[in-house]
Design goal:
By secondary structure, the protein is an alpha+beta fold. It is built from 13 helices and 16 strands. The chain has a six-stranded antiparallel beta sheet with strand order 2-3-1-9-8-10, with helices on one face. The longest helix is centred in the middle third of the chain and has 19 residues. 31% of the residues are buried.
């Protein structure tokens, strides 16, 4: 993903370059294709480039629209481009950043709910001294913000915000405790007081000296899909998955897939290979990357079966245990805690993906969260007094080999 950041003075004071230059100084490998800064009166923007989508190398950001006076800095990918381009009567070569800006011009704050994809962006309206930031519905693209007297800053990484302005914010001990217990429940707070995370599917609107957030989308639990046959559900799910994978293969180079050999990542790899083979996506092809863990639980045989079936170029690294102090060093560098214990083992794999020239890495991560069962559903059903559903669910789950209780139900 690219890196975005900026600072606006809602009181009309000049923003200058100091804060965004300090952000840019921390980009490092996150902006391999360079960065650019735009300062205009009471606003300053910075964009660190990682060219992923076709035409990204020709895109100019931060992007200013002269007739309206709006400026946007955008990180992400718009997946429903065809319908958006048609609705806005825009040329097919319009960049995703320009598309999001034109959508805002057409529909105002309501434009975000029309966009489908992974994105985070900030739009500044100088004439109204109004800032609108937004984050995609799943929160794939990060966005943080920090505000003071008369100003607000935003960035796609915590360390950029912590370092852009003096003084350095104090540690948020309450959030540190949540990380240490492994029970992180707060969607807004971070390890630093005064630096906040914009939640998924939310907008941040700053104007007139006031800042507020707005949830622009939430799943509708009343929606149901009814089919007569199980095969129809499977076909529908497969089509949705094919659409999602195709959207992420909108890249001019080869894409990578982080392959464990499990059902989730193997399915992603197979669909991606089919799409590339049929030339239905811009990507030139797929390469597989795997982490091998020596011992009886090594998934290498499954990895090799999948790569052999789809004739994928295969790359494998051997997992190494984290070195003493590695987690501490990573927290000190990124100012954020990795939420899974084996995160350091993935770093060499990411470096290999980068060395192979891939800018997109597909994974099967999240499949268990979306498709697997959670024990919390029992509490929900009891709380809603759905006792019949509670019993039916328990009877269905008892057939699972890892079901934790009530074998006699």
């Amino acid at each position: 993903m690219s890196v975005i950041g900026g600072l606006v003075h809602l009181d009309g004071a000049a923003a200058g370059r100091h804060a965004v230059e300090r952000m840019a100084a921390r980009f490092g490998s996150r902006a391999p294709d360079g960065f650019s800064i735009l300062c205009a009166g009471s606003a300053s923007f910075v964009y660190g480039r990682l060219d992923v989508t076709p035409g990204a190398a020709r895109e100019s950001q931060p992007l200013a629209d002269a007739p309206s006076g709006l400026v946007i800095v955008f990180d992400g990918r718009i997946d429903n481009r065809p319908e958006m381009l048609e609705s806005l009567e825009l040329d097919a070569h319009t960049s995703d950043a320009a598309l999001a800006l034109q959508a805002h011009l057409a529909w105002g704050d309501g434009a975000t709910e029309r966009l489908i994809g992974d994105f985070a962006f900030a739009i500044w309206d100088a004439s109204r001294r109004r800032l609108v930031c937004a984050r995609d519905t799943s929160g794939i693209r990060p966005l943080f913000y920090r505000e003071g007297h008369g100003w607000i800053a935003w960035a796609s990484a915590i360390d950029l915000l912590a370092a852009c302005l003096d003084p350095m914010p104090a540690v948020n001990e309450g959030m540190a405790a949540e990380y240490l217990t492994g029970l992180v429940t707060d969607k807004r707070e971070t390890l630093f007081r005064g630096i906040y995370r914009l939640p998924p599917a939310h907008q941040l609107i700053a104007s007139g000296g006031a800042t507020r957030t707005r949830c622009y989308w939430t799943p509708d639990p009343r929606q149901t899909i009814r089919y007569v046959r199980d095969e129809d559900y499977a076909a529908h799910f497969t089509e949705l998955m094919r659409t999602a994978v195709a959207a992420r293969l909108r890249t001019p180079a080869c894409a990578g897939v982080m392959l464990s050999g499990g059902v989730d990542s193997s399915s992603v790899a197979g669909i991606a290979a089919e799409l590339c083979g049929d030339r239905r996506v811009p990507s030139l092809g797929i390469e597989a990357f795997s982490i091998s863990v020596p011992g009886p639980d090594d998934e290498r045989p499954f990895f090799e079966m999948v790569t052999g079936m789809w004739k994928l170029p295969a790359h494998r690294i051997t997992a190494r245990l984290p070195q003493p102090g590695q987690f501490r060093d990573e927290i000190a560098r990124d100012l954020e805690v990795q939420m899974f214990p084996h995160a350091p083992t993935v770093d060499p794999l990411r470096a290999l993906v980068r060395d192979r020239g891939a800018r997109v890495l597909l994974t099967g991560m999240g499949a268990d969260d979306w498709l697997g069962a959670s024990g919390s559903i029992y509490a929900d059903l009891l709380g809603q007094r759905q006792f019949r559903a509670f019993i039916d669910r328990a009877r269905a789950d008892r057939r699972s080999e890892d079901f934790p209780g009530w074998r006699g139900v």
